[in-house]
Amino acid sequence: MAVRRAEFKVGVSERTYRAVRGAAHLLTALYWRPEIEGAEHVPAEGPVIVAPVHRSFIDFLVAAQVTRRKLYYMAKDDLWRSERFGRFLESVGAFPVNRDGADRVAIERSQAVLERGDALILFPEGTRRAGPVIEDLHEGAAFLAARTGAPIVPVGIGGTAEAMPKGSKWVRPVKVHVVVGEALSAPERSARGRVPRHQVHALTEQLRLELQRLYDEAQARAGR
């Protein structure tokens, strides 16, 4: 059953969220010592899609350092196998997504977050990848930008692949560097209120090129 956007609410307790966010910030600061460039590119208010590269499980912790705003994000639905852990994730702004195909419920929930004027973290690669090349992206970020008018802020993260690569169960205390790019504007709607598909494709490719540039820069700054 589809979730109607007007009915969707993420059950975030402000007290719980701030406590977990503070603990995560402290852990990240002590263990990976991230240096953040360009944080001013994240709008202080209004809807925004924060779109980082994804090379490690810890990327969601590092990406959260680019703004003080409350953040919402998708997480793979496997994490909800534990009901208790699932409730905890929801308390800090997460909601599940099925990555095997187009998850309409997750898209509706993402749209609800943006239509409320909040910030959404969305990994446009869809899953953790390996290697220095940003390959084809999912079009979810551009699609949501087209639907809501939210800008997309690309984020390059360097060093996390060495801290905890895909498949690793161990975390290393390595130096991490983050470069936040300028916001990419949502495509303009036609006179009939629609966004042509080719504009969604074009924005996705623009995002891919910008993520590659930022990732290369972040890796270089991190000494990788």
Summarize the structure in words.
- This protein has 224 residues and is an alpha/beta fold.
- It has one domain: Glycerol-3-phosphate (1)-acyltransferase (3-Layer(aba) Sandwich), CATH 3.40.1130.10.
- Helices cover 37% and strands 14% of the residues.
- It contains seven helices and seven strands; from the N terminus they run αββαβαβαβαβαβα.
- Strands 1-7-6-2-5-3-4 form a seven-stranded mixed beta sheet.
- Helix 3 links the parallel strand 3 and strand 4.
- Helix 4 crosses helix 5 and helix 5 packs across helix 7.
- The chain is globular, with a radius of gyration of 17 Å.
- The chain starts with 13 loop residues before the first helix and ends with a helix.
- The relative contact order is 0.20.
- The N terminus is likely disordered.
Evaluate the radius of gyration: 17 Å
Task: Detail the poorly predicted runs.
Answer: 1-8
* Named CATH topology: Glycerol-3-phosphate (1)-acyltransferase
Please write the CATH class name.
Alpha Beta
CA distance, first residue to last residue: 46 Å
Count of individual beta strands: 7
Shape: globular
How many individual helices? 7
Main pleated-sheet profile:
7 strands, mixed
Write the element-wise H/E pattern from the N-terminal end onward: HEEHEHEHEHEHEH
Structural class: alpha/beta
The tally of structural domains comes to: 1
Q: Which characteristics define this entry?
A:
single chain, Glycerol-3-phosphate (1)-acyltransferase, alpha/beta, seven-stranded mixed β-sheet, 7 strands, 7 helices
